[in-house]
Amino acid sequence: MMKDLTSSDITRQNILNNDYALDRIEFYLALGGTHWEGKRVFTKTQVANLLQIDERTVDRYLESNKEEISKNGYAILKGEELKKFKEYVGGIDAADISKAPSLGVFSFRAVLNIAMIVTESQRAKDIRGKILDIVMDVVAQRSGGHTKYINQRDEGYLPSVYEEYSYMEEFVSALDEYLQADNWKYGKYTNAIYKAIFLENMAEYKKILSLPKKDKARDTMYAEVLNAIASFEHELATEMSNSYKKLGRKLKPPELDKIMEEALKNPFLTPHIEDARAKMASHEMCFRDALHEKLERYIQSVPKSDFDKFLGETSKSLEERLSDPETLAVLKRLKDR
Predict the structure, then answer these.
(1) Contacts by residues 32-41 (CB-CB < 8 Å, ≥ 24 positions apart)
(2) Predicted TM-score (pTM) of this structure
(3) Average pLDDT score, the chain
(4) Which terminal residue of the chain, N or C, has fewer Cβ atoms less than 10 Å from its own Cβ?
(5) Shared domain check, 97 and 14
């Protein structure tokens, strides 16, 4: 489902925000350029030669994608900075820079950025193919080959699981004590919570992630999603208790349905729900190549910090976390609250 890089700015930015993949791409592609002030830079002439296009084509893409390419490292050197660059490169591309009052230079990220959007170049198309292959390899390798459970590599995952489990128990108890309904109420209202938060029921969610029937959906959910579910469950349990005391009897299903509708309008819950939708939609597209169509409008590029969270040095498998004394200490504190 990986989108066409030439048409998806979010997919492009997800790659350019992934420093782990960029290191591997830079090593394998060996695009050249000039090392200056600790980074690899390219002049417009070098970019045109690299992509086998003329400089006017480079200018055209710069003009139509200026904000995006600038964000990823395109800069214009002037004055003293340009003077230093000219002195540093010496005879390299002298015709390109010797008399210019200013000079546009591309970082390695900016070169990849423009290679992702140029449609006239076979060379750019080849680079895009290699980029996608390397990105998928890096994500698979750094996640231990299990992107289905990449959510569990976040150090915030286990505390969120514990919190959500506690509030789930509170909600289940509230259903027993305050709702007049048969045993089907547990499955019905679990699905209702899912639909309220991320607009899908459990069956839809599992189908999108190709989860076997035996797999637990919540085991694959990100910490932000679990936090939103916990907040929603706590709100429902609290309001059910209040309504029970006010009415002096158990609630009927339509009355609980009304409570759920009102909870969705709660201004204190709204930020949690919106954050859960954005994180779920964006992370699923980036890390699991899965599209939740009902959340498509929430998809954003994944920030660099989240690549560190799931692929970096602080990310660990669930097994590693459960053997970590610091994590166990956090869970004990939560238990003893």
Answers:
(1) 33/108, 33/111, 34/88, 34/89, 34/92, 36/85, 36/88, 36/89, 39/107, 39/108, 40/107, 40/108, 41/105, 41/106, 41/107, 41/108
(2) 0.84
(3) 88
(4) C
(5) yes
